[in-house]
Structures are given as structure tokens and as C-alpha cells.
């Protein structure tokens, strides 16, 4: 997952239909934590980050028909990031005009002090990849025996030593290695399925 995969075109076509609940559920499962984390990193409080996330998806639902999938104009995630960023700025400007007793006077300063938009985009892409990995892992976890899953999770995600995990699970180091490879291949397959052509 070193390259940042593109959002599956078929999902973007399907979310143009507001009645396609399955498409919107999948879309929201992937992108809600991403937008929420972006807002939290920018200093928004929990409830404000939730509100901003809802505003972003309302804006996406209203504008998805106008999104142009031309690669020369940028990726979908770039478009989504710009919507989120613009709504954050609008929210902060509105607060400046109509101050509220949030208890946090430095939110605007934090947003202005952050790195340039290109750095924000990289953070957004990294958070997307992290969230997509965890989403795919949740989707495939039930396909494996508990020991196989633990072998993968403890060595591949938590970074525990192979020998220690093998000993605690009653497996050989080779079996732990195979378990990790099998689960990782399945997660990669799930991600490719979601991000595929």
C-alpha cells in the first residue's frame, strides 16, 4: 500500500444515486473517520468535528453530479479534501464573526499555523490509507481462525517478534509467517476490490 490508491469509480457513480444505501454506507465507512480526523487535527472539538463531517457529506451529496473524474483536474480525494478544508475555513470565519463560548480561542490560529495545503493533502492521503487498511481488516477478519488472525495482527500490525508470537500461540515461526502472509494478501485483495477499476 505504498502508493495511494484511487477511489473506485463505480462507487463514485453509485453514490450519485441518493437511494443507493449500500454505496453510501460503504462510502461513509471509508471516509467519515478520515474527515473527522482531519477536523480533529485542525483543533476542532469532538462535536464540531462531527458537525463538520456531516456538512462535508451533505456538500458531497449535493455536488457529486458535478464532480469531473478527469485525472488532469485531480483525484476524488483531492476534491473531497478541498471541500473539507473550505468548510473548516468557513466554520472558523463564521465563528470569528459570531463568536461562541467554545472555550478554545486558538482554533483559528491552529488552522493558520498548519503546513501548506500540499502537506495537508499528504496527511489526508495517509489517514485515508490507514483507515482503508483498518476497514479492510475488519471486513476479512471473520474469514480466519483466531490463531491465524492473532499471528497476523500481533506480528504485522503490532510489530511483535515472530518467535514470541509463535510461542504464545503454540505455532511454529513458519506457521506465523504463513498466517501473516495469507491475511495480508486477503486484506490487499479487499482493498483492490474496493479501489479497483
Characterise the protein shown here.
By secondary structure, this protein is mainly α. The protein has two domains: 1-141, Rna Polymerase Sigma Factor, Chain: A (Orthogonal Bundle); 144-197, Arc Repressor Mutant, subunit A (Orthogonal Bundle). Helix content is 72%, strand content 0%. It has nine helices and no strands. It has helices at 9-14, 21-41, 46-63, 76-97, 107-113, 117-140, 146-157, 162-169, 173-195. Helix 6 crosses helix 9. The longest helix is centred in the middle third of the chain and has 24 residues, at 117-140.
Itemize the secondary structure elements and their pairings.
Blueprint: H1 9-14, H2 21-41, H3 46-63, H4 76-97, H5 107-113, H6 117-140, H7 146-157, H8 162-169, H9 173-195
Helix pairs in contact: 2-3, 2-6, 3-4, 6-9, 7-8, 7-9, 8-9
Concise synopsis of the structure shown:
This protein has 197 residues and is mainly α. The protein is 72% helix and 0% strand. The protein is built from nine helices and no strands.
Classified by CATH, the class of the largest domain is Mainly Alpha
Unreliable runs: 1-6
What order do the SSEs take from the amino end to the carboxyl end, as H and E? HHHHHHHHH
Characterize the largest beta sheet: strand count, sense, and whether it forms a barrel.
none
Gross CATH architecture of the largest domain? Orthogonal Bundle
Total strands:
0
What proportion of the residues is helical, as a percent range?
Answer: over 70%
Q: What's the CATH topology name of the largest domain? A: Rna Polymerase Sigma Factor, Chain: A
Mean pLDDT: 78
Using the CA coordinates, give the radius of gyration. 20 Å
Structural class: mainly alpha
The coarse overall form would be elongated
Strand content: under 5%
